[in-house]
From TrEMBL:
It comes from Paenibacillus campinasensis. Keywords: Transferase. GO terms for molecular function: transferase activity. This is Methyltransferase domain-containing protein. PANTHER family: PUTATIVE (AFU_ORTHOLOGUE AFUA_2G14390)-RELATED (PTHR43861:SF3), TRANS-ACONITATE 2-METHYLTRANSFERASE-RELATED (PTHR43861). Residues 45-140 form the Methyltransferase domain. Coiled coil: none annotated.
Length: 246
C-alpha cells in the first residue's frame, strides 16, 4: 500500500488538488482551527499529513511552532521550497508515517485535516491515533477532518467527469462495504498524454472514528459536520472529530 500511497501523491496531485484546496478554503479552515483551539502565541502544532504545507506554512507565519509530517517526498519538497523564504518562522517538515511517530516531541495540538487517514490498513490508523495521543501534552486537542462516509456513499456514482484547474479528469469508483475501502481509478489528460493513478482509502463512519480515538486514550470526543462546528448531518460532505488528551 505504501507504493500506491506514494504514487498517488505526486506532482499531478499537487496541481489537481489546488482546484479543491483553494486559498479561500485554506484561509477559512485556518481561522476555524484557531478559533477552535484557542492556542497561545508560540504554541506547538503537529500537522499530520501536511502535504505541501498548505496549513503548516500559514500557521508558522502567524507565530506558531509547527512540525509538518507527511510520507510524500514530492509534497515535502514543495513544502520546504515554499517555507525556505520565510523569516522568523519556526517550522520543520519531516518525512514519515503517523503510525511511526517517535514521541520525541510533545505538542499543544495536533491536526489531521483533509482526509489524511485511511490510506493504509485500519490497524495502522489505530496505531497512528495512539502515537498522536502520546505526542500531545495533557489537555491537548486532536482535530481530525475527513470525508463523511455516509454522505459519500449516499451520492455514489460509479463514473464521473470533473474539470480540475482546466484539466479534464475521469474517475471510475467502487466502494467495498465489507472492508470500507473506496477505490477510485483516476485518469486525466495533460500535455498531450493520458496520466493515471489510483486512490485507495478506507472510509470511516463517525462512530468508528469515535471508538478508535476513545480506545487510543482520548476523551471528550465530539463530532461535527464542518470546521465551523455545524452539526454532522447525512448531507454534510465532511466531518470533524475533536478529541482531548486527559
Amino acid at each position: 500500500m505504501l507504493d500506491r500511497l506514494e504514487d498517488f501523491f505526486k506532482e499531478d496531485y499537487l496541481l489537481l488538488s489546488q482546484a479543491i484546496m483553494t486559498p479561500e478554503r485554506t484561509a477559512a479552515e485556518i481561522q476555524h482551527i484557531l478559533d477552535w483551539l484557542s492556542l497561545d502565541q508560540g504554541a506547538s502544532i503537529l500537522d499530520l499529513g501536511c502535504g505541501y504545507g498548505r496549513l503548516s506554512i500559514p500557521l508558522a507565519q502567524m507565530g506558531y511552532r509547527v512540525t509538518g509530517l507527511d510520507y510524500s517526498e514530492v509534497s515535502l519538497i514543495r513544502a520546504k521550497e515554499e517555507a525556505a523564504g520565510l523569516t522568523g518562522a519556526d517550522i520543520e517538515f519531516v518525512r514519515g508515517l503517523m503510525k511511526d511517530l517517535d514521541g520525541s516531541e510533545i505538542y499543544d495540538a495536533a491536526l489531521n485535516i483533509g482526509t489524511a487517514i485511511g490510506y493504509l490498513e485500519e490497524e495502522d490508523d489505530y496505531a497512528a491515533f495512539r502515537r498522536v495521543f502520546k505526542a500531545l501534552k495533557t489537555g491537548g486537542t486532536f482535530l481530525v477532518e475527513t470525508e463523511n462516509r455516509d454522505f459519500k456513499i449516499a451520492g455514489y456514482t460509479p463514473r464521473r467527469w470533473d474539470d480540475m484547474n482546466g484539466v479534464p479528469v475521469w474517475s471510475e469508483r467502487r466502494y467495498y462495504p465489507s472492508s470500507g475501502r473506496w477505490v477510485e481509478k483516476i485518469r486525466w489528460f495533460r500535455d498531450r498524454n493520458i496520466h493515471s493513478s489510483v486512490l485507495d482509502v478506507r472510509l470511516y463512519s463517525a462512530t468508528e472514528l469515535t471508538r478508535m480515538l476513545t480506545e487510543a486514550g482520548f476523551r471528550d470526543v465530539r463530532v461535527y459536520g464542518s470546521l465551523d462546528r455545524k452539526p454532522l448531518e447525512l448531507t454534510s460532505p465532511r466531518m470533524v472529530l475533536s478529541a482531548i488528551k486527559p
